[in-house]
Predict the structure.
Amino acid sequence: MALSGLEIYKHLPKTNCKECGLATCLAFAMKVAAGQAALDECPPLSDEAKAALGEASAPPQQLVKIGAGDKTIELGQETVLFRHEERFHHPTAVAVRVSDELDNAAVEARCQEVAGLKFERVGTTTMVDMAAVYNDSGSAERFAEVAQVASKVSGKTLALVSSQAESLRAAGQVLAAERPLLWALDGSAEDGQAIEAAKELSLPLCLEATGFDGIVALAEKAREAGLKELMLSPGKVDGAAAIEFLTQSRRAAIMKKFRPLGYPIAMQVLADDPLQAVVEACWYVLKYAGLVVVDLARPEHILGILCARQDIYTNPQVPVQVEPGVHVIGEPGPDAPVLVTTNFALSYYSVESEVEASRMPGYILSIDTEGTSVLTAWAADKLTDETIAQALANSGLESKVGHKKLVLPGLVAVLSAGVKEESGWDVQVGPKEASGIVSFLKTQWKP
Ligand code: SF4
């Protein structure tokens, strides 16, 4: 039976030393009770206390760390089936396939593509996380050689994927300091050699088998051998079978606390057609995969997958916000327009992209509405003539432009008179939708 936070707290050192990253032992106990932290994260915890708390306090899904230093990727330790119940914690790692059958120039070219798969979206940087090196050649020597090149050129954390324990060991050994994921394909971990290699090298291991019975048997075997950082893969499945596997394993881990399936899942996208492959990868990201390997490296394909990931792993309880205040677009002169919006990220970036598209440099004054959109903020009295006038007074814009005229969102035209009275600035009512900004600036804006 699950333990309460107070029951766990009784066994903690109660020194509030903060080594776990939390301010107090009580906060840590509450996180453990919620399945969001593991006892291992409290270094001073005694073996007796660990034994007393045991499995009952373990998170339903194991946290797995791949990579080293600032390239460490954390996967798993999810606590809910549906994002609206709380949030998803550790975003799916996206990996691009690199075959060791490619010649050296092609390996380098592929890895350079992987390094460049990085995008700015809604004010954050999103990118491919890993290169997955496949031992298609069957040669341990070639596999280790390509893995080293992939690590150096892509700069990414690696998954080393092979059905031969000898190859996994050879490549894992030369890159052990970088903590790659070893991935034993096609039930090859059955003979225990890949498990031995992962244990000796202290590396995380992905176990692959067909069907739940095979995977559970492998997971039990690895656990008995003392391996904790495991991932599971259902092998070459796609479509409904893949979604069924992902859903059933997540249900078993979270709702039934079935330990052998309490590990993040690694999926390989099988579709040959690039657009079908993007769709398949997005399904896996949205339906619980911890790691998705794609054989795609074009930006227009990867961006869709990364957008799906960013959306599902955004905390639904916290509005996505930008910094309130003045944002400068281009190099505005004294006649540049000043447009008002809120600090809700989607509102702000819609306005920003339209101002950029107009090719008219300007200023955007984003009002602190605690991340709510224009109409919501107005209805909640967060976007008022006073808050706009106050933001304007604090902005320093008066000394930057040679006019005193604001562009107010058309949805809150009703605030025009009040803003003018409170701020002393003239108000020009802009379009109701951001999509009208380009035409508005070109045909109606007058300083
Ligand atoms: Fe308390 Fe352990 Fe966290 Fe220190 S590391 S604050 S002892 S829970």
